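Cross-posted from the bioinformatics board.
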Amino acid sequence: MWQALHEELSPFGVTVVTVAMDAEVSMAQPWVSAASPTHPSVIDRTHSLGGALGFVNVPMAAWIDEHGELVRPAESSRIVPSVMAGREVPPGLPPRIAARFELLRHASPNAHEPYLAALRDWAHRGAESPFALTAEEVIQRSQPRHADEARAAACFEMGEHLRETSGVDAATPWWREAHRLQPSNWTYKRQAWSLETTAPGEPSDLIQEPTDRYEGNWLDDLVAQGGLKNQTPAFSGPSSR
Amino acid sequence: MLLTTLFPSPDEFFEQTGWEAKPEGLCRGEVCVPSPGARRPDGTIDVSVVAERLSMPLLRDEHSDTWVLGPSALSGRALDTAVVPPLSLSNFDGSPFDFTSLLGRRIILAAWASW
């Protein structure tokens, strides 16, 4: 999907750079190989985009102008309809899978359209686009960061370093602390959960059921936070200037 | 950022954080923060002083003696300037991704994940 958009927008001076927020290269690589992107495709193994720019979930994107300045902060960047939107829950599913299905089916089928339209407008009109924010708006619309969120970013980075060098047991207390400090950061949580629940040699587990290692899990955390509408910071629309 | 020393050179600190030591203080983009004591007599940066001035968490793992410096919480937002900070992204072969290859183009930085 990003490949098609890159091909469409590249003649207007726009380059898509896709970033896999994945601790393990082997988990992301098959997806990249299948997509064969012609745009830059990179990996962020320590989820540094969280600390640097405020990415807290996927899909999210930030826009950077030709001078190296952000014109939109990290925000929800869905560019295709949700495959689950509006689908009926199949009968006979295990209760927790049915509950997951029920949450996902309430995603808006057209939620991607405003973002896609804004992206195309900016590609064609550049700084004249109403979706190119002022520097002050970029800062004000970026994710909240107080002491807890800043510490969560450091805890996640520490955990990933220790997981690499000493194993997951060394990482666990740091990652648990990151989850506690910033419960709204889904990249820290989903990364840790999936590493724990994915069977060796299998693709990343998306269900992420409860484990003994971490306090949270996908379904219960999402319900506790009020469902999908609160999972990813929304696209915030045009400039107010 | 993972620290190899608590006293990096100003150039090293700038490359990793985007914060530059200037006479008026530590600066990134248009933001400058007075930071007395941040420069040591030998010219290196004292990370523990900087961490306090810029509201950056400084963590230590005692077992491995590893230090990590987190991002600034100075503005209460993830960004304190619209200038893009240094990003530590890699190509899939492990080599660092060089953003200067895209100079002059507009960029959509789009995150996804396998999980």
